[in-house]
Amino acid sequence: MSNETHFSSFRVFNPNARSYDKKSPEFLHKKFADARSREYKQRINEVDCADFVPMIMSSTGGMGVDMQRAVKHLAKTLAVKRNETYSKVAGLVRCQFSFALARAALLCLRGSRSLYCTFRLQEAFEGPADLALQEIAGEF
């Protein structure tokens, strides 16, 4: 991936839904990624001169191929920038996506307590990965 602009569209689906009983998670990831690409990719490529990455994730934590590739690239970039090991940063990034998924599900169930979003993606990736992983594991 180069330093050009990238756009993403997120989609989370429940692989345990009755309508998906006979379909594999890999098939569903590809199906939803293809649908998002049909909707957005051509316009983003032509109008914005940018790249489009469909970020497809199941509610059980599985990620589509494009999202896995994007998460790996993000973790590699952050590890180099922070001079930390890739494995720790990759674990932190995946953990942050899992928590964002859990927060979104909880928000859908109970509703918002305020009019403003309290989660900022930039703050989620600040600080050393070791400290964040220790906080998540309850070691700190």
List the helices and strands and how they pair.
Blueprint: E1 6-13, H1 25-47, E2 51-58, H2 65-82, H3 86-110, H4 121-124, H5 129-137
Parallel strand pairs: 1-2
Helix pairs in contact: 2-3, 3-5
Characterise the protein shown here.
- This protein is mainly alpha-helical.
- The chain has one domain (about 5-135).
- It contains five helices and two strands.
- Strands 1-2 form a two-stranded parallel sheet.
- It is globular, with a radius of gyration of 17 Å.
Can you summarize the main beta sheet? 2 strands, parallel
Strand content bin: 5-15%
The secondary-structure class comes to: mainly alpha
User: For the terminal residues, how far apart are their CA atoms?
Assistant: 36 Å
Number of helices: 5
Low-confidence stretches: none
- Note the run of SSEs as H and E: EHEHHHH
Percentage of residues in helical conformation: 55-70%
Radius of gyration, CA atoms, in whole angstroms: 17 Å
Please give the domain count.
1
Mean pLDDT: 82
User: How many E strands?
Assistant: 2
- Global shape: globular
Task: Strand order, main sheet: write it out.
Answer: 1-2
Please supply descriptive tags for the structure shown above.
single chain, 140 residues, mainly alpha, two-stranded parallel ribbon, 5 helices, 2 strands, globular
